[in-house]
Amino acid sequence: MVKDVLHDTTERMHKATEALRDDLKKVRTGRASPALVEGLLVEYYGMPTPLQQLATINVPEPRLIAIKPFNPKDSSAIERAILKSDLGLNPSSDGQIIRLMIPLPTEERRRELVKMVDRRVEEARVAVRNIRRDAIEDLRDFEKEKLISEDDLRHGRDEIQRFTDRHIEQIDKIGRDKEAEVLEV
């Protein structure tokens, strides 16, 4: 029983950490990254479709994203989706390839991005702590129902705390790395 709770807890904490990592990939820095536009929804035959299903996305230069639609007729729909998005980028197209120049963010914009990264990191920490709380409550319930002993409860709690500490440390490192990337000129 305790092992099941511990396994579930580590899995959920790992997913929270990975969700933060994926979320922060979408934060725009001065560097081009396919993750900025991959999930962008494009109106395709009346259905919102992720851009990565309609085109290949390359980064030929550090500040340029090149999008080559599988069907050149979809270029205008892709351009509209980029303009509608909150990316703040202006696409330029030659009919075959859509190019997105990633401007260097201003100092003020960098500070805003750092605050946003801090908020998302804190949300991930809270998620991990909530997972810890739920797991410990489960163990307490098992102990009340006499399914596990007091020693098992104590051991499980200590193990869950170790998992929590490890994941909080990972989350902090991910946040520090992203802040350094955002502040890089």
Topology of helices and strands:
Blueprint: H1 2-25, E1 41-44, E2 47-50, E3 55-61, E4 64-69, H2 75-84, E5 91-93, E6 98-101, H3 107-144, H4 150-183
Antiparallel strand pairs: 1-2, 3-4, 4-6, 5-6
Question: Could you please describe the fold and organization of this structure?
Answer:
- With 185 residues, this protein is α+β, with helices and mostly antiparallel strands.
- It folds into two domains: 2-26 and 106-183, Ribosome-recycling factor (Topoisomerase I, Chain A, domain 4, Orthogonal Bundle); 34-101, Gyrase A, domain 2, CATH 3.30.1360.
- It has helices spanning 2-25, 75-84, 107-144, 150-183; strands at residues 41-44, 47-50, 55-61, 64-69, 91-93, 98-101.
- The strands form two sheets. Strands 3-4-6-5 form a four-stranded antiparallel β-sheet, with helices on one face. Strands 1-2 form a two-stranded antiparallel ribbon.
- A hairpin with a 2-residue loop joins β3 and β4.
- The longest helix has 38 residues, at 107-144.
- The chain is elongated and about 70 Å long.
- The termini are far apart.
Keywords, please?
single chain; 185 residues; alpha+beta; Topoisomerase I, Chain A, domain 4; Gyrase A, domain 2; 4-stranded antiparallel β-sheet; two-stranded antiparallel sheet; 4 helices; elongated
